[in-house]
Design goal:
The structure is a homodimer.
Chain A: H1 17-27, E1 43-47, E2 50-53, E3 58-61, H2 74-86, H3 96-106, E4 115-119, H4 122-137, E5 141-145, H5 154-157, H6 161-164, E6 176-179, H7 196-213, E7 218-224, H8 239-249, E8 253-257, E9 284-287, E10 298-302, H9 304-312, H10 325-340, H11 343-364, E11 368-374, E12 377-382, H12 393-405, E13 408-409, E14 411-413, E15 419-422, H13 430-451, H14 458-465, E16 483-485, E17 492-494, H15 498-504
Helix pairs in contact in A: 2-10, 3-10, 4-9, 7-8, 11-13, 12-13
Chain lengths: ~500, ~500
């Protein structure tokens, strides 16, 4: 599908792609990775759930949760542009945008969460949450989840096993404790466990007890309300309540990281922590990515008690850009659009439709081990073996690469990089869902043919899977069964079959 | 001076001021301070070097270095608005704005500094600089300057004595070492020292030696190229070269924090570290505030060697908003305006003119102890006594408050909060300089009359001051001589005289 690029703005594609790539190699930190590194995409324009490359080729965007209300939404652009013309300054001056935005944001949260700090990124938000917790409790130890990712500043690398698993023990922070991910598909306690919520919460209790034995004191438990990079994990309901009870009993507080999953994405609720039940209220909520539809902004909301304790240190908190009138105008516009266009309702409806389509695919494709999600936050975990749960890492990468050739953007994540992640702009439609699932169906069919996987034994497999035991040392990095390393991609992928070639032509 | 508020956009003043203030108290973290807390200003519009309150009253802005090329500069607004309409996404896609901006920024720097990381704030930049230093050197210890401020995330509170001086020793980071501020007015080695640059650099050498004795290893020395919050301190030329030599010999690197002072503000050079001489090149430069004229963006630039070492850890660096096409379009526009309007030249000319006016005031007012600055980065240190250097903290606050009543925005900072800080938008004019200095003259005259300070002994004082010794325990918080605490302001201020009252009516 092609798009007429706005010719007035064709300065948007000024350099040829090779030149862009060469300059990038020269001047941008090599640790900053690019999508599809063997053949990256140059995007010059975007609208709604679609992105367009320099040739006008359209891509269906299933991954950019930051473009929450749709890429370049006109209401958001207008709000930002108008305010940029009027005033953009720091929050040491009084401004209505700041207080009206705080008020509107607060109205989406339980009453108790009433005090806001505006910052510039999810990382700044989570770092401030830690500072608040340390100051309020006077304690130092933090409990985080296995595979968690909370941001890129140094204090957050310390609490992000998704990042620090690469580090030696000596480089790890001794005040950080890692609890098992409450993953009922692949984790320590699974769907067949009578009460996984309690079992996982008891693990946290055990960590607290151990920390106490060593003289540690718990400042906070931090978790994404649904783990995103960690593999689209949906914790069992009741888990957070029990964890909060254990943590608060130890004098600590509960931080809900909603950077990836907040703002109506889960469909039934505005905040993902609310999936756990109305009786659960965290002490701090951090927000980020979707909050400004791409504009750099972010927020920490907490209770009056925590905020007063933070102030009592006597240390001022000043954030140069945080809460400036432009950011707040944009934030207000995003909230307005979510409401006006019923995007939370859309997430519920389209997310439900997408999940039902995927469930049908699971009946058809052995490679699909699990479908899990809420609203437009959906994970499809690919496995080589439904009993052993062998991660189908290479296959997941192949799906992603082939979808890209088909002009659909999807990504794979989780500790084994075998979970297809859906987190599209919230204006995603049922037609979009049909399109991407149809393409996944074709790609999986071909992959399964290449791997000799057939669905004939499905009923036995399903029976067996209810008796599953933890997989033994499956690291997801085996490249046998016709799988080869894709040149330059750094990722394993199946050998090209005829159909693969056709898909790419 | 009054201004016709743009009536189309009068939504800009939607709430009455009391309501804005009440909502702020309810919903914004109490640690987030406001200017002139006993009677804060509500700003609704700004242009160039002027800000306007909700009544249309104009204020001359001498403090907002963030609005670098002038508040709401039309080129910057246009660049941002146009790009917001087209595309705003992350840097995992190729985009010309990112690479062209990196290229243009690099061209302002020594060749060796060629690799950029785009982030969202000065704090994110300085935190990343520490991560780069730790990874490159494999060392952990950081040397920072007395009174330094490098940002609000937890790793930067650790290296900011301006902040952590409030903390107990137990709360301080044991890997952080504090070197004396190279302040030749009030510091350990002064203008009368034969070689203060070497003396201050030798202090750093001493710290390195002590750290080594205890088994420490130096990762980096970090300093603002000119200390800003620390009191507008201009380090003696040659200091950075010698420090860099000591630090590099110990296996560490040199980080120049240009967050406050970069982008041509110093007039003679684009970067303030260049004031030290062409033979000085830091290993990392961090940028912030002025880079996007208020848009939340920031950058770290380093050498290929440091960047490669960071990559070799295997850990990807991803920053959701950093380097997005809108931020880069804005950054490019800012660089273009600086060039097109010769704002660096303007900083040199107007800054020189401002400094010469202030020097004349120093001849007239005993309260002025020191004038120091480069371009449009100027500090005026107020003292009660030119021999003892007793900080005139309350007087500095009174100047600020009275200037506000006169619709001029200035601030006071430094460890004793007695340094008047000029860092206006770069379009500041000689007329603006005349206006603010004339008002300061009136205020100081009145203050000196109230305090009974006369200039009669000036020549003796000046003679004495060349034999100065370090002041004994001057904390700047004495409120005698008719000075009382201003109610609600939390700041000390002189009693109102008749003229004070007139100024405020």
């Amino acid at each position: 599908m092609f798009f007429q690029l706005d010719s007035d703005k064709m300065s948007a594609a000024r350099l040829d792609k090779k030149k862009t790539l060469d300059l990038r190699k020269k001047h941008i930190g090599p640790s900053c990775k690019i999508f599809f590194s063997h053949d990256p995409i140059k995007i010059v324009q975007a609208k709604g759930q679609y992105m367009y490359d320099e040739t006008g080729q359209r891509y269906l965007d299933c991954i950019n949760n930051v473009a929450h209300v749709g890429h370049c939404h006109s209401d958001v652009v207008k709000a930002g542009a108008q305010q940029m013309e009027l005033l953009n300054t720091n929050s040491r001056f009084l401004h209505d945008n700041l207080v009206q935005y705080a008020q509107k944001l607060q109205a989406t949260l339980p009453d108790k969460l009433s005090v806001c700090y505006f910052v510039n990124s999810g990382s700044e938000a989570n770092d401030l949450a830690l500072r608040l917790a340390w100051q309020y409790t006077g304690h130092k130890d933090i409990i985080t989840l296995e595979n968690a990712y909370h941001g890129h500043v140094s204090s957050l690398i310390d609490i992000s096993p998704y990042k620090f698993h690469q580090l030696s023990d000596a480089e790890r922070n001794q005040f950080v404790h890692v609890a098992p991910s409450p993953d009922v598909y692949r984790g320590k306690y699974r769907a067949d466990h009578p009460d996984p919520a309690t079992a996982y919460a008891d693990e946290v209790k055990g960590i607290i007890d151990k920390a106490h034995e060593k003289g540690g004191k718990i400042a906070a438990f931090i978790a994404e309300s649904l783990q995103s990079c960690g593999g689209q994990v949906i914790p069992p309901a009741g888990y957070f309540q029990q964890v909060a009870e254990h943590v608060r009993k130890a004098g600590g507080i509960f931080i809900s990281d909603e950077v990836q999953v907040g703002f109506g994405r889960v469909g039934t609720h505005f905040w993902a922590f609310q999936l756990q039940g109305e009786d659960f209220v965290p002490d701090i909520v951090t927000m980020g990515k979707p909050i400004g539809n791409g504009h750099p902004m972010s927020c920490v909301v907490t209770t009056r008690e925590v905020a007063e304790a933070f102030m009592s240190s006597g240390m001022e908190y000043f954030n140069t850009f945080g809460g400036n009138p432009v950011s707040c105008a944009i934030g207000l516009a995003v909230l307005d659009v979510i409401e006006k266009e019923d995007l939370q309702g859309n997430a519920l409806r389209v997310g439900g439709y997408l999940t039902s389509l995927l469930e049908k695919q699971k009946e058809k494709h052995l490679l699909i081990g699990d479908i899990r999600g809420c609203g437009l936050f959906v994970g499809v975990e690919l496995v080589r073996d439904r009993l052993k749960l062998t991660p189908a890492t290479a296959e997941a990468q192949e799906v992603i690469y082939q979808l890209k050739e088909e002009h659909v953007l999807l990504s794979a994540d989780g500790p084994h990089r075998n979970v297809l992640k859906f987190k599209p702009p919230m204006c995603f439609t049922t037609e979009d869902a049909d399109l991407v699932v149809e393409k996944i169906d074709l790609i999986l069919t071909e992959l399964e043919n290449a791997l000799g996987l057939k669905m004939h034994s499905i009923s036995n497999v399903e029976k067996e899977s209810s008796k599953r035991k933890p997989p033994i040392d499956e690291n997801g990095h085996q490249h046998d069964d016709g799988l080869v390393q894709r040149k330059g991609s750094g990722q394993a992928a199946p050998q090209q079959t005829k159909q693969n070639k056709r898909l790419k032509s």
